Amino acid sequence: MITMKNLAEQLERRRQDSLYRVRAVLDGPQGPEVSVNGNSLLSFCSNDYLGLADHPDIIDAFHRGLDRYGAGSGASHLVTGHSRAHHELEAALAEFVQRPRALLFSTGYMANLGVMSALLGRGDRIFEDRLNHASLLDGARLSDARLQRYAHADVPALDAALASAPPGEYLVATDGVFSMDGDVAPLAELSASAASHAAWFMVDDAHGLGVLGPGGRGSVAAAGLDLQAVPVLVGTLGKAFGTFGAFVAGSEELIETLIQAARTYIYTTALPPAVAVATRTALQHVRDDEWRRDRLAVLVARFRAGAAQLGLQLADTATPIQPLLVGKARDALALSEALRAQGILVTAIRPPTVPEGTARLRITFSAAHTEAQVDRLLDALEKSFATEITEK
Ligand SMILES: *Cc1c(COP(=O)(O)O)cnc(C)c1O
Fold it and tell me: If we measure between CA atoms, which residue out of 199, 191, 203 comes closest to residue 235?
């Protein structure tokens, strides 16, 4: 809680608690190596999993989009901001995730808020995994529905909560791949539980789309779940797709309902059309470049084997999100700084992004990394952990 008086004091307390956040300023594109204050750092903390954020084809498409549509959309989708580029991207995304329709939102955060506040209201209930992304929790708040959180990936707990809930509309929402933990939700079981209690089931696949499943169609496709099993699918475009934006995919009726009722869709400016043009090209790479997913798997396996040799405790997951649990915020920050001193950028993830006592280094991989770079990371981790331990 922040009080109006003494902001400076409160900021100072944050600093003393190792919870103060500062932004690294990048002087060039996203990629395995980034330029920060004139220093080149080897980065393992972006969400650019397929290495598309700086892809020449996508940049070319962006330029073409700018030439055709100009810089900004100039209006919301329902006024005059909805371009042919947006329209075609929606159709391509729907086809990609094998759903009847898709609707573009400016961000994943807004997509989640929009869906929840459009579909639910006072007297309804939203059931969420404890480790869901902040935007899903905030969506529940904005909707005025009652939020009930169940223990992480605990299907029996969800089942019990649904069984004892009073009448009303229900929605179960989960990350497909948990953003800070990298594990995949038990989607088939969650879907069955939601269905047996006549609840909506919503999967936010921000970190699975492009990375998991056949053709990169995500965690939902990997679990073999169709429209009926997952009526609300959210995907983001700023991660594996390398551009920006998000979408909701579902039935014709769901999408029309969102167009009429999702406030974060209606009352905001449409994405620049050039982003939509670029994202169509990104989608082709996501779909066709199977080798990027293969590369990721090789890099992640190499990292996990190396980390095991060093005795580092990793979560049991093969996704490109490989968190190294540290515990105290101060220790996570010290490790991050020790890595930085060796030219490696891995940000410390601290509360409230993760629960108290579970601060971590969230290490992520991109298809653009090389094996030699993974080895450099392992080397630096070994040195950083050694220093940390001898200093204690
Ligand atoms: C990143 C993320 C979002 C937000 O998407 P943006 O497009 O960045 O706003 C939503 N959900 C999850 C699980 C995420 O990781």
Answer: 203
CATH number for 309: 3.90.1150.10
- Residues annotated as part of the active site: 179, 207, 239
How many domains does the structure of the chain reveal?
2
Does 63 share its domain with 123?
A: yes
Question: pTM higher than 0.90 for the full model?
Answer: yes
Given ligand 1 and candidates 133, 243, 244, which is best to mutate, with the most ligand atoms within 8 Å of its CB?
Answer: 133
What is the chain's Cα-based Rg? 21
Residues with CB under 6 Å of ligand 1 are 107-109, 112, 133, 135, 175, 179, 204, 206-207, 236, 238, 246
Quote the ligand 1 centre to 249 CA distance (angstroms): 15
> Nearest C-alpha to atom 14 of ligand 1 is from which residue?
206
pLDDT, one tens digit per residue, over 5-54 is 899 999 999 999 989 998 999 999 999 999 998 899 999 999 999 999 99
Q: How far is the CA of 49 from the centre of ligand 1 (A)?
A: 14
Distance 282 CA to ligand 1 centre (A): 18
Pocket test for ligand 1, best of 109, 181, 362 (most atoms within 8 A of CB): 109
Do 297 and 323 share a domain, yes or no?
yes
What distance in angstroms lies between residue 110's CA and the mean position of ligand 1's atoms? 9
Check residue 390 and give its pLDDT.
53
- Name the residue range of residue 80's domain: 56-288
